[in-house]
Structures are given as C-alpha cells and as structure tokens.
C-alpha cells in the first residue's frame, strides 16, 4: 500500500505529487484510496485532524490541484458567516473571482443553506461536474461550531441533500469528539495527520537550503537547531522561522574566514548562545524579525533581551503608585492579617497562629481577591508616610487606574456606595513599582512571611 | 467455441476493479439496500398501506418515523415511495414535497421551498397573503383540477422533524396537521426523526391535530442477521459484467465470512453500535484498499479499517505535543490527583512545573514564564483543557480556573508511545502513582 502507482491517475501527476509532498506517504495514499476514482461515488464527509503544520491544508491543496479535480477550498476564519462560505464555494466552482470589473461582487447572492443547495446543483450542472466527485474543503472547521447550528450537520450530509457526488472535507486541529452535536449527525470518517518525527523534520527543513552553501552545511546547521529547539517546539512553521532567523549568525565565522564549513565544533560554539537566547522568546514574537536581526548585528555582549514583559512598566503619579501597591496588598493578603501588618502595636503574632487549614495554598497561586474601597484607603493611609486627605484627587486616580486595567472593578458599575476592586498586575510589576518609591513590598506580603 | 465466448466476456482486471468499486460504493453510500429488508417488513407494509390510502383514496394522514441515527428511516421511506411510484397511475397523480429541518430553518423559507417544489411560482406571482395559513391553502387549492372536486394528493416529507418544532409558533406543523385533519386536500405528512421524545416538543394545539401514528425502527436484528447483511452488502449481483470475476469475488467474500478475525471485528463493531451506517463505513474503508495489485478483500483490510475507525483521537493529539506541553499536562495530572479533581489555574501548573524543573529535571530547560504560558494557551486552543466559567475579562488569564479533559490512563499511555521522551519526565509522570 505504499506505492502510488496503483492509483488510477496519470503517472507523471503522481510523480509530481511525490516530489512535492515530503514525508507524508502513508497519509497521501490513504487519502487517494479514500478518494477513489473521480467518477466513483465518494464518502460524504472526511474529517482530517492533526497539529498545526502537519501539512493538512498543503497536501489537500496540492493533491486536488495536481490531479485537476473540481474543488472549492474555504477557510472558515476568512469566511466567518455562512453567507460568505456559501458564496465563496460557488465562486470557486464557477471560477469567478471578485475583481474591480464586477465591483467585487460574488457570482451569486446566497443567504441560506436552502438557497445554497439549489445554487450548488445549478453550478454543478452548468459546469459539467455531474460525473465526477466535487470536493469542498473547509479549513479551520472548528469555527463552524460557532456559526448557525444547522451548518455543520448539513455540510456533513451535503451528499444526501444535493443528491450529487460531493465530498466535504473538514480540516481541524481539534478532535472530532468535540464537534459532535447533541442529537448526533452523520459521522464522517476521520483521518489523522501525525506530527513529523525528528528525522522527518530534519529532512524537510534541510530541503530549503540557500544556494550559496552546500546542502551538507545547511543540514548540519539544522541538526544543531533541532537539538536545541526540538524539546520545546515541534511546529514546523516556527522552526522554519527560527532557522531563517539564525542562519546568518551561523555562517558568520565562515564568511569572516575564521572557520571552515566542516569545523562543526567551532560553529556550534559560536551559535549556541544565540540559540539559547532565542529559546527565551520562542513563539512569543515580541519583536519583529528585522529588529531581531538588528540586535544580532550589533551583538552586544551584555545585551539583555527586552520583551514585552520587560517593557511592562508604566510611569504613574506618586499617589497612584501607592494606590496600586495598596490594591495589590489588599488583593493578596487576607483581611484578617491587616492588623499584623499595619498596626503599630500588634503584639507578636506568628504566621502559624493565623494559618487556617484551607489557606495553606498561597494567594499567589489562587489569584487576587476582591476588596472594598474602604480597605484600600485604610491601607493607603498607613503605607504613605505623609498624611493623605481623601480628596477627589485620590478618587479620580483610582478610576484612572481602573481605566488603565491595573485595577478592575468587580461587580456592577452601578454600585456606588461600596465598590469592590481587584488588582490585576503581576508580582514582578508591582515590585518594580514599589522599588521606585522605596517601599519593600515583600515584607508586607503574607505569602512571603 | 464456448471457451472463446467466455473469454470475450471477461474484462481486464483494471476494468473489473473499477466496476467493483463503482457498484459497491454506490450500494453502500446511496442507501440502496441490497434486496432484502432486514427486520423491517411490517413497518414497510404499514407505511406503504398508508401512502396508498392517500394516493388512491384521497385520505389524509400523518405519521412519524422514529429511530436512532443510521437505523434506516430514509431507506424505509425511499423504498416505500419507490413502490408507490411503480404503480403507474399513481406516479402521475401524486406530488411529493421534501423538506429538511437542516435546510428550511424558518417557516418562511419552508413555504418558499414548498412553492418551488410544487412548481407554483408563476401562480403565486406577486400576490400578497395575509397569513401563513392563507398562503398554504392557496397553494394547495391551486393543485385542484378544473371542477374543484378532486384534488391532487401531496406527500409532505419532513426530514429532521424535530427541528421544525423549534420554528416560531410551529406554524408550518400546525397548518400541515390542520389540513391533514380537516380533509380539505388529501395530504400525508411524514416526519422522520431520531428523537424519541419528539412528541414533547410539540405544542398542545399541534399535538392534538396529529394522528399519533408512529413507526419505530429499533435495529432489532441479531448478530447472525448482521453477518448475513455483511455478506449481502459485499457480494456482487448476477448483473455484474464479468461473470467469472464476480464468482471469484463472491467466493472470496464467502471465505471472509468464515474467517475468525473478520468475525471478531464484526462482533466488536456490533457490540459497539448496531447502526447500519457505521457498518457501511467500515466496509467502505476496507473496500478502498482494493486495487489492481490487491484485487480481493482480505482480513487484513478489515483489521486496518477497524483500526482507522476506532483510534483514540486525543491520544493522537497528545502524541504531537512538545515536551514542554507534555510536562504541563503531567503537572495538571499531579494537581488533579492531589486535589481530587479540583480545577486549577496556570499559576498552580507553573508552580508544579517549576518544582519539577528545580528538583528532578536534568534534561528540561527552565523556560521563561511567557513561553510556558504560551504553551498553556496552546493546550487550551487544542481543547485538551477547558475553562470552568465562560470567557470573562475580569480574571487574568493566569488565574482562570481550568479543567483537564484527559484521563490519567490516557496520559500514561500517550507517554509510553511518546517519541524521544526524556526519562526524567517519564519518571515524574509515574511518581505520583505510588
């Protein structure tokens, strides 16, 4: 079952497919077997799932276009309403493309599934597709669940509804079980696209080597790259991005003449710190690729990577800073402990004395708790050295903190007398803020006693 | 001489395979049963009788066909309709309107569709109607012959009947049942549904107009009948162009039926689900493997098809996760074990992961928190974890309570199969079991 020759298509087309699709032979042959011959009746629906970057969309597109089968491919992110999906399918069947000449209109207006069935039948007969299987591919099919309830079950039984030879193919990252509607539906057959193994990743990534260098040189680079990143990332798109980004750095010693292409150890020592640094921001894309390259060009030794988290530091007015600190303390300390922290003669209360059983887990794991306005102000008065008057000034600062999303209002907005708030900043952030006003916040946090 | 004749009739092997695929795919997908009705003879007779009374005697009726998915409701109906149409004078006399709850999502659309299927668009023209009932009765009046005494019987077939009950005021159902009951025009309303509680969905005024005739299809066949169906579905009929190939094919099917492996698979399938459609799908998948170099079905094809039908898809998804994501899953598993299934949030998972990295891990790198959060979000996106409450802006994403949608055994099994799994990670996963 591994050779493609058995399938009833032209030999050169199959060879073309084999050339263009790497490392997906079992999936490809399953797919072709399920498709059968164009004139045969095919499965009503096929559900293909697998992780992102396992070639679902690519293979479907390549197979359908290489074998010249009639098809329509729709991305459900792009076509987010049923009308857009219907019109897109009809446009593709009619080979109609919205352009300035037709004022970007679609071939036919189609609002409901009922209309779609009628227009689809018309399209099939006018384009002469009656005697072959038509494929409708719905990419990112998980979004269909959020559209009208009848859409998914109706697409599943499109073959029965249109009484024609049509196969609907769903592509998704999510398993079929979470698609199934309450009252059941026509079950599709499911095909799993497995993730690439390390060897396959190596093979695919090595295949796009730049022309100036030998394939072996690039392959050794990919080997190093995979050795570092394989544990955290198996997504081929991300790996490709990383490979392209770090390659100039890798070749630098070769260009400068410090090393030859075969000095793998030297090259490894050169690239390792850069890859380690890239590891800290994998997937995050906090800075653009061009910025990344610029940073690499400058190559400062003591360079600290500045991501969004490092930039997350806002300049606030003096009282606002204290308000935020007070809010943080009120959110993460139990109200009972305020006496211990803010009263001068509280006596000696150890942490174990007021440790209750259910409070063993720290508040920094459970998240902030809401607190009333009065408590916030009371803490504010005791942590600010000078006397603060409860003026409108202070209150307006509270509401601007809410606008900045540093504090959030809990409950309804219309509660005027005792509003409750929650502090939503992270520990690192609040420590940075506290440092600017010389306030040792950790000493006041119950979790860190 | 006779030898040459038979040689003439035999087709090249490629052509034979082509024909086999074409025949069997058509049979398995087009709801066409292979000749024998399995256990539904009485229901069939009942339905045909009912239809005949409408079409010949002009009686109105209403009936519901109820049965689980894939139990052959549409097949039964199509079979009955075909039988009715075989009688010549009836063919010209009756009209059928097919509606489907999935397509006609509102009564307005349904009415338009009825007009279209009765070819009355010209008659209606630009006429404006006061009410739904007026419109419908106008349509049916239009079907009356010149002398207005005899009227053309109409069969209304409502697939996914339960969905029509969700339309506003159930206007369509009310009007159809009302006409059926008040003997204006001979119509029969046939509803197909998989919901046994469909009567509860109907409003009182609709329910009282319904005849309460129900035909149940409950897949009440035994395993030996199931096996017989299996054979029947795959055998080639005598009409196959190449006789010798058909004989050979049928012989191989016969030997398959006696094969122990195939019987086991059928038994498993039968125990899991009795519906015929899943059997059809299984057979089709096996059939897909037939090609020129492999011209006969064998037991291995069925083993493969069965494997394809019942893989654990979540385990598949777990297989493709990165080590970091796998670590998070294990951390969640530990949290669930210690807190007896209480929900968790990202902070807790991260804390658990940190503990592992600091104490036991040699191979896992200590990742930055945003990277771990990204991995956590990816798990959410894959729907392996689910938030407890709806999306609320007020809680930070680190503190949103989540639930793990995986079973412990599933996780451990996935770890066994996981490629290049570091030993320390595996040991960490096993550690809490003791």
TrEMBL record, chain A:
InterPro entries assigned: AAA_16, ORC5, ORC5_C, ORC5_lid, P-loop_NTPase
Domain of life: Eukaryota
Segments forming domain ORC5 lid: 218-283
Cell location: Nucleus
GO molecular function, one term: DNA replication origin binding
Orc1-like AAA ATPase domain mapped to chain residues: 21-169
One of the Pfam families matching this protein, by short name: ORC5_lid
GO cellular component: nuclear origin of replication recognition complex
Keywords: ATP-binding, DNA replication, Nucleotide-binding, Nucleus
ATP-binding as UniProt keyword: yes
Gene Ontology terms: biological process: DNA replication initiation
Residues covered by the Origin recognition complex subunit 5 C-terminal domain: 316-445
Family note: Belongs to the ORC5 family.
Role according to the record: Component of the origin recognition complex (ORC) that binds origins of replication. DNA-binding is ATP-dependent. The specific DNA sequences that define origins of replication have not been identified yet. ORC is required to assemble the pre-replication complex necessary to initiate DNA replication.
Quaternary organization: Component of ORC, a complex composed of at least 6 subunits: ORC1, ORC2, ORC3, ORC4, ORC5 and ORC6. ORC is regulated in a cell-cycle dependent manner. It is sequentially assembled at the exit from anaphase of mitosis and disassembled as cells enter S phase.
Protein name per Swiss-Prot or TrEMBL: Origin recognition complex subunit 5
Species name: Pyxicephalus adspersus (African bullfrog)
TrEMBL record, chain B:
Swiss-Prot/TrEMBL keywords: ATP-binding, DNA replication, DNA-binding, Nucleotide-binding, Nucleus
UniProt keyword Nucleus present: yes
Location of the protein in the cell: Nucleus
Superkingdom of origin: Eukaryota
Nucleus listed as a keyword: yes
GO CC field: cytoplasm; nuclear origin of replication recognition complex
Domain AAA+ ATPase: 59-220
Subunit structure: Component of ORC, a complex composed of at least 6 subunits: ORC1, ORC2, ORC3, ORC4, ORC5 and ORC6. ORC is regulated in a cell-cycle dependent manner. It is sequentially assembled at the exit from anaphase of mitosis and disassembled as cells enter S phase. Interacts with DBF4. Interacts with POLQ.
Function: Component of the origin recognition complex (ORC) that binds origins of replication.
Name of protein: Origin recognition complex subunit 4
């Amino acid at each position: 079952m591994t050779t493609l020759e058995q399938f009833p298509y032209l030999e050169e087309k199959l060879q073309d497919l084999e050339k263009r699709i790497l490392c997906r032979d079992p999936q490809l042959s399953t797919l072709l077997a399920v498709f059968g011959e164009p004139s045969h009746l095919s499965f009503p629906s096929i559900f293909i799932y697998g992780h992102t970057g396992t070639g679902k969309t690519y293979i479907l597109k390549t197979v359908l276009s290489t074998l010249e089968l009639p098809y329509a491919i729709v991305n459900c992110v792009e076509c987010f309403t049923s009308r857009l999906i219907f019109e897109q399918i009809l446009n593709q069947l009619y080979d109609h493309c919205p352009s300035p000449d037709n004022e970007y209109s679609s071939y036919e207006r189609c609002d409901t599934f009922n209309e779609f069935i009628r227009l689809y039948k018309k399209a099939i007969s006018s384009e002469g597709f009656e005697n072959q299987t038509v494929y409708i591919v719905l990419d990112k099919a998980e979004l269909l669940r959020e559209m009208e309830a009848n859409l998914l079950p109706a697409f599943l039984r499109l073959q029965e509804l249109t009484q024609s030879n049509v196969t609907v193919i769903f592509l998704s990252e999510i398993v079929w079980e979470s698609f199934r509607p309450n009252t059941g539906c026509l079950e599709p057959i499911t095909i799993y696209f497995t993730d690439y193994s390390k060897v396959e990743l190596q093979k695919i990534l090595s295949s796009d080597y730049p022309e100036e260098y030998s394939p072996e040189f690039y392959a050794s680079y990919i080997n190093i790259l995979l050795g570092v990143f394989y544990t955290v990332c198996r997504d081929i798109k991300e790996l490709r991005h990383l490979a392209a980004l770090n390659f100039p750095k890798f070749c630098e010693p070769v260009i400068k003449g410090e090393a030859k292409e075969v000095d793998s150890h030297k090259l490894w020592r050169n690239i390792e710190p850069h890859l380690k640094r890239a590891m800290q921001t994998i997937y995050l894309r906090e800075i653009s690729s061009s910025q990344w390259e610029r940073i690499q060009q400058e190559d400062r030794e003591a360079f600290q990577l500045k991501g969004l988290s490092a930039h997350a530091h806002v300049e606030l007015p003096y009282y606002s800073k204290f308000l935020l600190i007070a809010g943080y303390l009120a959110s993460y300390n139990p109200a009972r402990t305020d006496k211990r922290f803010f009263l001068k003669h509280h006596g000696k209360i150890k942490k174990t004395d007021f440790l209750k059983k259910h409070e063993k887990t720290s508040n920094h794991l459970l998240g902030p708790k809401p607190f009333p306005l009065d408590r916030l102000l009371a803490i504010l008065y005791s942590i600010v050295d000078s006397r603060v008057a409860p003026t409108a000034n202070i209150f307006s600062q509270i509401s601007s903190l809410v606008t900045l999303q540093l504090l959030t209002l809990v409950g309804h907005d219309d509660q005027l007398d005792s509003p409750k708030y929650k502090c939503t900043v992270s520990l690192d952030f609040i420590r940075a803020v506290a440092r600017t006003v010389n306030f040792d916040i950790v000493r006041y946090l119950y979790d860190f006693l | 001489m006779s030898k040459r004749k038979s040689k003439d009739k035999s087709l090249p092997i490629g052509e034979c395979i082509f024909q086999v695929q074409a025949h069997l795919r058509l049979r398995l997908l087009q709801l066409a049963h292979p000749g024998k009705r399995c256990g539904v003879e009485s229901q069939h007779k009942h339905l045909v009788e009912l239809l005949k009374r409408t079409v010949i005697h002009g009686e109105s009726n209403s009936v519901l066909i109820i049965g689980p998915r894939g139990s052959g409701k549409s097949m039964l109906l199509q079979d009955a309709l075909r039988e009715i149409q075989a009688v010549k004078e009836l063919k010209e006399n009756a009209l059928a309107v097919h509606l489907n709850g999935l397509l006609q999502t509102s009564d307005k659309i349904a009415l338009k569709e009825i007009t279209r299927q009765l070819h009355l668009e010209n008659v209606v023209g630009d006429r404006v109607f006061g009410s739904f009932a007026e419109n419908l009765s106008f349509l049916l009046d239009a079907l009356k012959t010149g002398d207005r005494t005899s009227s053309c019987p109409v069969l209304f077939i409502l697939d996914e009947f339960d969905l029509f009950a969700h339309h506003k005021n159930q206007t369509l159902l009310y009007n159809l049942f009302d006409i059926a009951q008040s003997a204006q025009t001979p119509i029969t309303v046939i509803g197909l549904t998989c919901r046994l509680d469909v009567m509860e969905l109907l409003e009182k005024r609709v329910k009282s107009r319904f005849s309460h005739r129900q035909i149940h299809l409950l897949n009440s066949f035994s395993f030996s009948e199931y096996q017989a169906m299996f054979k029947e579905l795959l055998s080639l009929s005598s009409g196959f162009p190449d006789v010798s190939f058909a004989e050979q094919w049928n012989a191989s099917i016969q030997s398959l039926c006696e094969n122990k492996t195939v019987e086991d698979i059928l038994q498993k399938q039968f125990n899991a689900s009795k519906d015929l459609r899943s059997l059809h799908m299984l057979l089709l998948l096996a059939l897909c493997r037939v090609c020129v170099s492999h011209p006969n079905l064998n037991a291995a094809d069925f083993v493969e098809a069965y494997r394809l039908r019942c893989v654990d898809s979540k385990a598949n998804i777990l297989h493709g996760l990165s080590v970091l994501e796998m670590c998070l899953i294990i951390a969640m598993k530990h949290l669930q074990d210690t807190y007896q299934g209480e929900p968790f949030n990202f902070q807790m998972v991260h804390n658990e992961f940190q503990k592992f990295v600091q104490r036991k891990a040699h191979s896992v790198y200590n990742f930055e928190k945003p990277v771990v959060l990204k991995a956590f979000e990816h798990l959410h996106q894959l729907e392996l974890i689910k938030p407890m409450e709806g999306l609320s802006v007020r809680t930070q994403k680190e503190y949103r309570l989540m639930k793990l949608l995986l079973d412990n055994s599933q996780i451990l099994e996935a770890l066994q199969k996981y490629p290049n799994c570091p030993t320390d990670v595996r040991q960490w996963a096993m550690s809490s079991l003791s």
